[in-house]
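@channel sequence for tomorrow's demo:
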Amino acid sequence: MTAFPEIPRIEYEGPDSDNPLAFRWYNPDELVEGKSMRDQLRFSIVYWHTFRGTGSDPFGPGTALRPWEDGTDSVDNACRRARVAFELFEKLQAPFYAFHDRDVAPEGASLRESNDNLDAVADVLLEEQKRSGVKLLWGTANLFSNPRFMHGAATSCNADVFAYAAAQVKKAIEVTHRLGGENYVFWGGREGYQNLYNTDMKRELDHLAKFFHMAIDHAKQIGFTGPFLIEPKPKEPTKHQYDSDAAACLNFLRQYDLLDHFKLNLETNHATLAGHTMMHELDYAGIQGALGSIDANTGDLLLGWDTDQFATDYYLTTQVMLTILKHGGLASGGVNFDAKVRRESFEPIDLFYAHIGSMDAFAKGLKIAAAIRADNALDGFIARRYASWDTGVGAEIEAGRAGFADLEKYMLEKGEADANVSGRQERLEAVVNRYLDRL
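structure tokens (generated this afternoon):
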């Protein structure tokens, strides 16, 4: 029985199509920079917003109509939901999906019961993966919803909570490995503090590092070889989260000798909440070899929280894809739609409209980015702007052959610095506009 009888498999029809249930830009087999769009973008659909989101907000209960739900939190309902999820994945031609442990299976009255529930649903997930060919991009553990995690999980002041979190992550890594997950994500939803009067920050950071080293050790024991990913987020729910942005995460990983085992899973809405652009966060991670995957969404600049909207802005998707291509692609990561339909978009078909629109936006962003790169439209200007570093004193500085005394002597003899080169920001923004007009 189908949950979406009125929805066909979504196919590519081209930019002139007016069919809302067709792709205008996402052509999975089209080659871009020598790889198919499918392999460049590696689209992934999240389980939590798509199949557990209800449309509730702080001012009212959920509005979403989900006919496949029976109103219970039973394992049977979870298994039925899993089969519905794969119908949507297949019809959208999404090669990957992602989940939290507590999204796919109900939490039991004990850790043992929760583990049994997860195993039962994982049996269905594995069966559906084999049938459909859809793969698991990554799994993760929900260490933030249950009240036991009020003070954090790996950074909790309660050692028993740390132990519970470790046991839960152990199981989540094992299930991710069993399902062939290509990565494992840590999002420290409550790994931070509200007030330093009651917080031993150094001890909490030390404990978080111990937790990650334990995860590395267990992954080696079971043969899980995918990278671990940390997802930065600056605030919400805690006032100060230890994984606040890419720089904070990389500093932490380097300090605790974890950098060889971790990359970053970057999210647009989290970047803007941290006061950065997504392009900044991607580039910062990329130049340090830590770009792992992205959570593809956007926020509302008029609202100060994580709204997790579907990205449809071609400027944003072009900037994202420019930076991803610059750093060689996403490897085992993907473009993961950590986004939810609005409360007012409550019918099942809205799930399709939302994903189709954002998949098209990233596909067009990919095509625009590739065209800009092929013409060297931005990099050529950057090379000219930094030309003084390629010869003469600039090359000496970069090669480590000049110190302060050498540079003092150089400038005393020269008398004044050469004239600066204009940044041409407005011209370059117009260049990008022309590519958007052209494609």
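heads up for whoever presents: The longest strand covers residues 135-140.
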